Amino acid sequence: MGWIESIQKAIDHIEEHLLDDLTIESIARQANASAFHFQRTFTILTESTVGDYIRRRRLTLAAQEISCTNEKVIDLAYKYGYDTPEAFSKAFRRQHGVSPSEARKYMGKLKFYERLVIQVILKGAEPMKYKILERDSFQLIGIKQEFSLIDEENLIGIPKLWEQVNTDGTSDELAKLNNGEIVGLLGVCVDKRAQEKNETMDYWIAAEYTGKVDEPFLSLTIPASKWVAFEVHGPMPDAIQKAWKQIFSEWFPTSGYEHAALPELEVYSNDDASNPDYYSEIWIPIKKG
């Protein structure tokens, strides 16, 4: 099964169990992917988190029921996963701009979110510069933090971690220690699918380093792998977000490669990240599909 078909299978699973207690892990299992990699790919391709998609679809169906039936608001609140009618009404108004009672009276306009169907459009208008290389295992030095994948807490926490290391001097210390082949600070996503806590991930801010690792830093060994390394040009975070979407929507579907399920690396140079010509890289471990 191709990766597009796998993602679509997971989306179909969401739709078939939209009123059930869905978890990121159970959804990702349908795509034969880890919770982290499924969440990341889904967000890149759809520009929506998994949680937002589920919430929007549930409130879309709830609006249809309110408009077409005489079901009580309290019953619909429980049906669509809300603990109280007040929480349901608040979420309903946030999406539709009107309360459930106003919607029943045909006041205002309701927002309809259709179920997703993943399609690949091969554009190719903007060329991607990349190289494929093989590397033996290598060592990183840095700090790490564990993030929950539930409710996309990692998407909130990772930017805060970067803000912390850029203000407390950690990033400067890592830049001085950087003596490996990859030049720059690294953002490293480590999937924990094989471990007991499979709805968490580790995120590292690190640098490639050869030598003894002293406190307060930790070491991470990156296994030997084949890699595809993409050039990224432009200010952060827009340029790298755009590059990720292009990689998953254009490069992977036609490359003959699959993600090798090892840590991904984002490489940030030491220049001004707001510069229009800022240079960064995305390194993805790959294997033949």
Automatic annotation (TrEMBL):
Record keywords: Transcription included?
A: yes
From which domain of life does this come? Bacteria
Where in this chain does the entry annotate a coiled-coil region? none
Instruction: List keywords of the entry alphabetically.
Output: DNA-binding, Transcription, Transcription regulation
**InterPro entries cross-referenced by the UniProt entry:** AraC_E-bd, GyrI-like, Homeodomain-like_sf, HTH_AraC, HTH_AraC-typ_CS, MarA-like, Reg_factor_effector_dom_sf, Tscrpt_reg_AraC-type_HTH
GO terms of molecular function: DNA-binding transcription factor activity; sequence-specific DNA binding
- According to the entry, every stretch annotated as the HTH araC/xylS-type domain falls at 8-106
Protein's name according to its UniProt entry? AraC family transcriptional regulator
* Organism encoding this protein: Peribacillus muralis
